[in-house]
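Recall the central idea of this unit: under ordinary conditions, the amino acid sequence of a chain determines the structure it adopts. In this exercise we apply that idea directly, starting from the sequence alone.
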Amino acid sequence: MSEETRLRRVFMALVDWRRRDALAKCLGNDLQCGAAVIRSHSIQCGFILKQLSADGHVYVFEHELDGVVRLTRKGIRRASTFSGFCAAHDQSIFRRIDFSNERTFDSESVEQILLLSLRAISREFWAKLNNQASLRRLADLTRQRDVAGIMALFNCDDSVARTVILRASDIGLFREGTTWSTERTRRSFFSLSRQLENQKYHLTVRQVFEFPNRTGFAAASGTTPLYDLHGKEINSLGHDRDAADLVLNAFPSNGSQWVVVTYHQRHANRLAPFLNQLIALPREEREIAISKFVVMNIENLALAPALVNELTPEKRQEVESAFQRTILDNETFTQFPEVNLFIKA
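Accordingly, the structure predicted from this sequence is:
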């Protein structure tokens, strides 16, 4: 078995493990809620995903059992879900962005924008807490060189377990990076929560892009952009305790495709120039630049079947391969292939 194949099997064992043993913890009440969790949607199901869907399905990027990323049809009741809130907190916190034909997105509502950001960062926070718990357990087993324990945990064979032990130093570095990113996400989660509780929104910078007569995708995620449109570094690859993170939401509403970006004001000097570059672009170029940014940086993403069905087999494979490369590689905008997630509404 080649080294690449072994590493791919290790990665897929990690992915499968996190799916099987996902954290089930309500983030409400400052993480003190002990109620049973539900499968919350980080992208609203009943209005947003439903608009994108065909026969109740959208497309998402998923790792198959062979370790390859493919665009996969997924039911909207399962897409973008996470076990991070109980029913009561999910309803009470986010009911004002429970969009419908009667209650649509209002780009002038700061409260709606921050609630969208809070829901996106909640999923991000939950995912990082999940990773942190998984890596803590894995570090204990690799330190003990417990082959049987790793085989039982991962439901894998002996060769994968021994590869995990051999890569213990890499796992340690990944765990360290996860610790820093989890702490940053925790700060963002509590900052947004407090701003909404106090109805004081001055700490959050907002940028809203509207694309009339467009649709195509929905996204909700926090991310740490590395480069601007010209390849200039925004964040370094090191473990920065105060990296310039942003939150991106994208969705169709009111006959337009909306892309909403927020970030903390202390990061304005690093992120505002990048957003200004996007603002300065003509509409078609802005669509492509935002599409590239989303595929490069956003994992929690749903695509309309109408969009995916327009892709040639070659283009679809190119997009799938590009998305997979973002897991380990860091490409600039000019290096990334052309992709446009916007289609006519």
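The chain has twelve helices and eleven strands.
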